[in-house]
Amino acid sequence: MTSTQIEKDNKIGLVNLGVTLWVSFLFAAIATMLFFATFDPIDIAQVATFPFELDRISGYSIGFILFWALLIINSCIINWLSAQNTSSMTGSGCPQDKE
Amino acid sequence: MSNSIDKASSESSLYAKSEKIYPREVAGQFQSLRWISMYALLGLYYILPWVSWNGRQAVLFDLPARKFHIFFLTFWPQDFFFLSLLLILAGLSLFFFTAIAGRVWCGFACPQTVWTEAFVMMERWVEGSRAQQIKLARAPWSLLKVRKRALKHTLWISFSLFTGLTFVGYFQPVSELFAEFFKLELSGWALFWVVFYGFATYGNAGFMREQVCKYMCPYARFQSAMFDKDTLIVAYDEQRGEPRGRGTKRIESRSSKGDCVDCGICVQVCPTGIDIREGLQYECIACAACIDGCDDVMQKIGLPTGLIRYSTQSQDQGESKPLGKALWRPRIIIYGLLLVTVFSGFIVALSLRSSVQVDILRDRNALFRWSQNNDIENSYQVRVMNKSQARQHYSVSVSGLDGATARWSKTSGESLSRVVEAGAIGEFNVLVNLPASADYQRSQKISLHVTESVGRTPQTSVEETRFWGPPRRN
Known about the structure:
The complex is a heterodimer. Chain A is built from three helices and no strands. By secondary structure, chain A is mostly helical. Chain A has a domain at 25-77. Chain A is elongated, with a radius of gyration of 18 Å. In chain B, the strands form five sheets. In chain B, strands 8, 9, 10, 12 and 14 form a five-stranded antiparallel sheet that branches. In chain B, strands 13-11-15-16 form a four-stranded antiparallel sheet, with no helix packed on it. In chain B, strands 3-4-5 form a three-stranded antiparallel sheet, with no helix packed on it. The longest helix of chain B has 27 residues, at 143-169. In chain B, a hairpin with a 4-residue loop joins strand 9 (369-370) and strand 10 (375-386). Chain B is elongated. In chain B, helix 3 packs antiparallel against helix 18, helix 5 (111-127) packs antiparallel against helix 7 (143-169) and helix 7 (143-169) packs antiparallel against helix 8 (174-182). By secondary structure, chain B is α+β, with helices and mostly antiparallel strands. Chain B starts with a helix and ends in a 6-residue tail after the last strand.
């Protein structure tokens, strides 16, 4: 691989990482709003299989981070799979595997 | 052959490591507009949480209490509908203004642009003009460079933390938040979100800048769908400008040259680093910095301004339409009508919004019981949500069953009404009594009416439930 090729791949990898994080962030925010407008985290914690103490701010924060993590993983796998499908030359796959 | 070389070189430039863009400082009417817009929007953002209204923070999205205060309005999770309407309104406005004036949002109002502008401003305070910044970046590390860089990042980080704190201040009381932060007592999630949002500001406005617009912004990609021939764009007058030329050659062959002196100012001032002379590009955020830059140069060399200007595609093709006619086109009318409809719907729904919400739960222990004076008695748990801005005394009555009476249960006091503070929820018991001699069925639908005491037209919430009696012997 030439150095420009590596640079190019790194660039795509970084851009992909940024896009993945950002789009996942947006939709995690929407999901969090919809979910917690419908359910109160305190109630959820009480009716959980293993009930636990949870204040609302922690509930919202953990909920948001979970949604975000889920969406990031989801997009990474989609990125990776579709890059594998098209061509190993152009695709960089999941940004994480570029390290 | 030459074609393929061109292609290869353009491709490699496309993927080259993105160079930091040092936008050249510019002055002019559009830059003034951008300053005004920046100060107004940033001012609004930083000051709004400190405004109070009726003894509380005017704008507070009180997540722990699950209610949003916006001046005289309070929204509950039940009002999620209004939030969706607001989002739809925001989207429609974006479409509407994009169709008329192109990417005004991107150039003047987008947080990414506004904060980047503020960060560029701080960068200039510390590192000086564009040329000085480039010189500093190329210079080897020295004490001066370290000092300047440290100062810049200190400014950026403090501003970012202030931004993060203000952001969290929209979700919890802002004065306590700032006090805790400066006493270093802030902890837990509040601290996490302050740092998180601060870091996002620092990264986005300090480093990623135009790359957010180029690679991450969905709007930048689909805004062209709202464009038509009459949408305002920033355009270079190619007919007048070309062939461009500079220096002495220009003076020698004045007659054959266009007005563009190829000074490159329009490229240097561009925050996304494009050359507007190559035509409309999706990287262009329509900030109009190149217009100001070019006008300035044209004035200096004694040529008419407007070589780069706000224009439309049809204007560029030589059509001249009056503004009224240019605005009167289906796209604008449809977006406008939709906007007006949804907005009036929003206002109507908001004004019809009930100020009291009642949930009724039947007592599950017994279907009915006999009261002391031999009436049939049913007991209900009633949750009253006071969505108004005043303390309310609620009275209760029943309909749908002749002879039945409703009252608040004695266990929580003797009075005829129950008090719920503004924005609070009260849980009470209601007893419905029916003389045994009355005409009733084993189970029938009744309605409980809960009426508030304060308000221009005190509202009543009517909720259906069931009333049970003993089996009748016929």
